[in-house]
Amino acid sequence: xxxxxxxxxxxxxxxxxxxxxxxxxxxxxxRLGRQVTESARRINRAAEExxxxxxxxxxxxxxx
Length: 64
Hints:
Blueprint: H1 2-63
């Protein structure tokens, strides 16, 4: 009777460890998603600034 109970306990502990790892992966995936969103926002802002700068540079060249 001891070995079956030990096997059940080991299985439960294994599932608990996997659950902890799953939570950690979920938290890190959310963090990565926020970083990707922030990076995309920065890239879009830089692209808009570049577009504005190129328009003003084209106007300056056109006036020459």
